[in-house]
Amino acid sequence: MSNLDKHYEELSKCSKCGFCQAFCPVYAVTGIEPMAARGRNAQLAGFIEGKLSLSEIEEALSTCLLCRACVPSCFSGVKTDELVRVGREEIEKNKRGSLLKELVFNTILPYPERMAVLLKGLFFLKKMGLGKLADRLDVIPAFLMMQYPRRFLRYRSSAESTGKGKTVAYFRSCGFNYLLPDAGEATIRVIQDLGYDVIIPENNCCGLPPYAHGYTDVAKDLARKNIEALERYDLILTECGSCSSFLKKYAELFSDDRKYAERAKRLSERILDSSEFIFKNLQFTSHASHGANTRFAPTSHGLKVTYHDPCHLSRYQGITSEPREIIKSIPGIEFIELPEADWCCGGAGSYSIENKEISEKILERKINNVKKTGADILATSCPSCMIQLSYGIKKAGLNIKVLHVNQLLNLTFKTPEIPADK
Ligand code: SF4
Ligand code: SF4
């Protein structure tokens, strides 16, 4: 009996109406039926019924973005993203996963020091010329877009606390720590500017990447380590939409674990995405108050800014208005709504590497929409989206800067300059 059997009832809820097709970014660019929610669910049901083998349904499972766009559009409420993920668990259980995933999830990701060595090595190779070669060969957006890790975000224990203001713990996401540290530093400065003392505990990867790929045991091991490292703090913030969504999911992940259920629930309740925290602290009252916030020095940027919704922030956590309200509050900035702002950018962690062709077609649609806004800055809140969008903009030859919302906010707190490309 496979884990999937337990989900047969959920799969049976699918009426095969096909309404989800119009919302699936993968189906939109491929037109292939097993790549929309209806098709993926049919394949999973076929496997449970013994009509299809794991290898026959593998493509339908690996090409899902887990973007969840199909779920709110489904009248029967079928949770296709979760069903696909359980299917991937089955693939991993049968040892059909790739050797590279085995290596990354079992021997690198759980060890921050190994991650640091690997990333420093990759950056060294990039500097030594491999970057140019990769550029020419047009491979791996993350490699092309990674910043120089001048310093990874340093641990800061409570012994280094300034004692001024209330303390918050900052969760270091792998993306902002290892690849885009400028955004992490901006977040820390913004929180400090709001009058808080920031502690940076020794956390591990949140566990979302292995979880999404079906490596549930690895994800739970990482989650346990994080619970132990973070449970002493009253409030834990992260600016990574993917991390905040998964840290909030710990409660569900351990709901039937006698030792960790209560601890996981308590921790999940103390997690906030930085946009929720900053929004609350800036105490917005109404649209009429925008531009009058005295925390900001007046700027004369005249910058046009648009915003892309990361799936893990918008659909997994329902956070859509906070980042927009934060942007709109900045004096001198003109906010322009992005058409199809919540349409996935095709980044989805390692999706852009594993399914490059599909990912680029999805990205093309996103970049075309960004172009229509005439924006100078494309703001968002997830490292994977930032990397993918920067890659798309570079490829399209556009002069648009991709920034985290907190980087944008930090500019108005500190210096009215847009950071130069590295
Ligand atoms: S997943 Fe939902 S929307 Fe899609 S075919 Fe099934 S019932 Fe219809
Ligand atoms: S989660 Fe996203 S990619 Fe997967 S079937 Fe649903 S809409 Fe398509």
Description of the molecule:
There is one protein chain. The termini are far apart. The strands form two sheets. A four-stranded parallel beta sheet has the order 2-1-3-4, with helices on both faces. A four-stranded parallel beta sheet has the order 6-5-7-8, sandwiched between helices. The chain has helices at residues 8-12, 25-30, 37-48, 54-62, 70-73, 80-93, 99-108, 112-137, 141-145, 174-179, 181-193, 208-212, 216-230, 241-253, 261-269, 274-282, 311-314, 321-328, 351-354, 356-373, 383-396, 405-413; strands at residues 167-170, 197-199, 236-238, 271-273, 303-307, 333-335, 377-380, 401-404. With 422 residues, it is α/β, with parallel strands linked by helices. The chain folds into three domains: 3-93, Alpha-helical ferredoxin (Fumarate Reductase Iron-sulfur Protein, Chain B, domain 2, Orthogonal Bundle), CATH 1.10.1060.10; 148-275; 287-413, Rossmann fold. The chain has 22 helices and eight strands. The chain binds iron/sulfur cluster (2 copies). The site of one iron/sulfur cluster has 16 residues, from helix 2, helix 3 and helix 6.
Shape: globular
Strand order of the largest sheet: 2-1-3-4
Q: Which structural class should the secondary elements be placed in?
A: alpha/beta
Percent helix range: 40-55%
Number of domains: 3
Beta-strand percentage range: 5-15%
Tell me how many strands there are: 8
